[in-house]
């Protein structure tokens, strides 16, 4: 009876697998639905709603540092492995010799004093790109000292729902350039402290994944835009997911670079400006690093000269910036020409995506102490070599970036500013969907239209309805079978005393199938044997066989049971894995919607293993026992059909002896002299349920 339930579960699993094979995302969606307790949700980092900074107006995020928590505002760094915050000394004259602004603490996003934190573990002062700490924007000249330590780090303002992790790398600093406000690192490379025995500490982002607080090692980010909408569009940062309301989908898939210090690299196939005329701004394609720490776009000198000609830019040698006077700024804002970056996985050919930046994305306003006096500037930098080619935070105002480190890919899309309701989706780790066919691409995060996504629900519904109908039919058959069998038992019920011990002679060539929990060894010897006339039977537990289940075949004179005076009985255990709806790779493989599942039982075959007997001995033994059994009415012969089994055996008849009832392969001992089994052909085997 349990086998029917097991069969239903197998068919449910098969139906789910069939649907997921045709529509790979269905299984991932089903996993999300039925494993909400095991798959964490994406984390949306709340923006501060402030636009701040000395090199432009940038959208920031709230984070909490130390114990008690100090709330500070920072920008996101898509490459940094550490979180950097401003020390109180950053608002002293020693840090800003030209004079400390009256609003310095607020303008720098608040400061963090490590002396006030009871959980601060000091690691010492290190250069940002010194020794084993090197790599972070070193190509752009980022090199200054920070006070490193380990402390509590949380996202958002004080909230019990926001994740808070201990022993995270916090680097506090003073100087206002190049980081006026602090940053939250999204990088994956660990921070290594060489002076302390090469201690390695995971980044905050990796720690979130290691503690399974996010569904995958992925994030999505767009820098926001102060010039969009009526009061600006805030930045968005999501760990383990993406928001389809914030970008225009495309089909371009980029691969992460092996160099973790410059991993998010795109091919810039062309740059052109569209205003009164369309002008090419890039004479030859290049590869560029997409990174949000630096606000500038770093391009070859030839491209910078082309920008100068189109926008009327003038390089200022003192500040090393393209400064804009008020007249220029107003004129360009009025015409608002669009600059288009055409990106691909390589510098030529293949699918491409266009990211358009209006002039207002370039018209940044700098303030003291970044420049002596507040002024507008154009965030374009002259790169000295190819290692400096970078699309910085300015670019990410109009671009939406999703990075999946587990699958090694990322996407860049045109950001949108529609104020639509958020449509956040999870990016599921391959740990959860390794069988869904999405292991080589970002699961549930491919760029597809909402129209395509809407078809997943009806498909899943159709599959589940079909499975539900089949399960209901199976239950009806199960109860009909049970009632029929109970009636037969009531009719033929015999007491245990009426069934004598069954010797090897009586068993003949039988193979008994029963249900039994999973056991260890495939072949297991029993105590049943007959040597030198000393008859030993099975143990009572093995002989508790209802009489109505014992079926003998009516044999002709040419076919006799094969038995020897001395033979050994072995159990042939057909072991199959536990059948569950789901995957054993999940955290809780025996739970479905919080309902415990009992591991399924497995059918067991007991085979009689023997060598051929003398014909005379077997003929005499057969005649004697057959006559005795028929006289006592203990055995009811049924006509045997070659290649088939009794009516209760169902589809088990005719199955290859090397395959279990659930279709699992078992070892083939047909060539072993010790294991000449009675299951060598279907005509020699009876199956009982």
TrEMBL record:
- Name the GO cellular-component terms: cell periphery; membrane
Give the compositionally biased regions (Polar residues).
433-448, 673-689
User: Lyase among the record's keywords?
Assistant: no
Query: Which compartments is it annotated to reside in?
Result: Membrane
Coarse class of the protein's main subcellular location: membrane
Gene3D superfamilies xref list:
Acid Proteases (2.40.70.10)
Task: Give yes or no: UniProt keyword Phosphoprotein.
Answer: no
Q: How does it sit in the membrane?
A: Single-pass membrane protein
Query: Where do the record's region annotations for Disordered lie?
Result: 433-454, 608-689
For this entry, the protein name equals: Aspartic peptidase domain-containing protein
Organism this protein belongs to: Calycina marina
Q: What is the lineage of its organism?
A: Eukaryota, Fungi, Dikarya, Ascomycota, Pezizomycotina
């Amino acid at each position: 009876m349990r086998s029917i339930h097991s069969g239903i579960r197998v068919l449910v699993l098969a139906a789910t697998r069939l649907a997921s094979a045709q529509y790979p995302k269905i299984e991932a969606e089903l996993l999300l639905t039925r494993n909400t307790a095991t798959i964490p949700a994406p984390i949306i980092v709340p923006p501060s709603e402030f636009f701040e900074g000395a090199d432009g107006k940038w959208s920031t995020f709230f984070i909490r540092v130390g114990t008690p928590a100090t709330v500070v505002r920072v920008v996101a760094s898509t490459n940094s492995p550490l979180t950097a915050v401003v020390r109180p000394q950053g608002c002293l004259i020693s840090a800003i010799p030209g004079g400390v602004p009256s609003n310095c603490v607020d303008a720098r996003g608040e400061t963090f004093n490590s002396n006030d934190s009871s959980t601060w573990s000091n690691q010492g002062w290190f250069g940002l790109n010194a020794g084993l700490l090197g790599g972070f924007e070193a190509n752009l000249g980022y090199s200054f000292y920070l006070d490193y330590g380990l402390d509590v780090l949380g996202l958002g303002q004080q909230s019990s729902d926001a994740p808070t992790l201990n022993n995270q790398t916090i680097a506090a600093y003073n100087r206002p350039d190049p980081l006026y406000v602090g940053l939250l690192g999204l990088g994956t490379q660990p921070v290594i402290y060489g002076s302390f025995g090469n201690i390695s500490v995971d980044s905050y982002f990796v720690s979130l994944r290691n503690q399974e607080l996010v569904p995958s090692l992925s994030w999505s980010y767009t820098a926001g835009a102060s010039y969009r909408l009526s009061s600006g569009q805030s930045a968005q940062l999501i760990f383990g997911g993406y928001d389809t309301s914030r970008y225009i989908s495309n089909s371009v898939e980029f691969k992460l670079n092996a160099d973790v210090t410059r991993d998010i690299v795109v091919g810039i196939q062309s740059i052109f400006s569209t205003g009164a005329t369309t002008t090419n701004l890039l004479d030859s394609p290049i590869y560029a690093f997409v990174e949000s720490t630096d606000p500038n776009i770093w391009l070859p000198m030839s491209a910078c000269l082309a920008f100068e000609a189109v926008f009327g830019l003038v390089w200022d040698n003192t500040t090393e910036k393209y400064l804009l006077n008020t007249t220029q700024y107003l004129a360009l804002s009025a015409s608002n020409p669009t600059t288009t970056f055409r990106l691909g996985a390589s510098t030529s050919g293949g699918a491409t995506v266009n990211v358009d930046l209006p002039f207002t994305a370039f018209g940044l306003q700098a303030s003291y102490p970044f420049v002596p006096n507040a002024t507008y500037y154009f965030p374009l930098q002259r790169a000295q070599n190819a290692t400096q080619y970078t699309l910085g935070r300015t670019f990410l105002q109009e671009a939406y970036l999703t990075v999946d480190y587990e699958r090694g890919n990322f996407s860049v899309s045109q950001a949108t500013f529609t104020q639509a309701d958020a449509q956040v989706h999870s990016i599921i780790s391959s740990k959860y969907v390794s069988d869904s066919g999405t292991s080589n691409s970002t699961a549930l995060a491919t760029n597809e239209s909402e129209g395509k996504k809407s078809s997943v629900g009806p498909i899943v519904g159709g599959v589940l309805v079909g499975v539900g109908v089949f399960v209901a039919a199976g239950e009806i058959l199960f109860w009909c079978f049970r009632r029929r069998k109970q009636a037969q038992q009531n009719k033929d019920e015999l007491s245990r005393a009426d069934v004598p011990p069954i010797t090897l002679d009586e068993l003949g060539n039988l193979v008994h199938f029963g249900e039994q929990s999973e056991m260890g060894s495939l072949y297991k010897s029993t105590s049943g044997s007959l040597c030198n006339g000393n008859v030993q039977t099975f143990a009572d537990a093995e002989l508790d066989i209802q009489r109505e289940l014992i079926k003998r075949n009516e044999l002709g004179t040419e076919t006799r049971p094969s038995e020897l005076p001395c033979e050994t009985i072995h159990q042939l255990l057909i072991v199959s894995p536990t059948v569950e709806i789901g995957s054993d790779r999940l955290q809780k493989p025996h739970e479905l919607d919080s309902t415990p599942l009992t591991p399924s039982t497995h059918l067991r075959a007991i085979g009689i293993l023997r060598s051929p007997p003398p014909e005379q001995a077997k003929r005499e033994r057969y005649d004697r026992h057959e006559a005795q059994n028929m006289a006592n009415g203990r055995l009811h012969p049924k006509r045997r059909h070659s290649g088939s089994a009794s009516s209760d055996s169902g589809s088990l008849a005719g199955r290859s002896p090397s395959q279990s009832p659930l279709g699992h392969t078992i070892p083939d001992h047909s060539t072993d002299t010790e294991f000449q089994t009675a299951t060598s052909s279907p005509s020699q085997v009876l199956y009982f349920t």
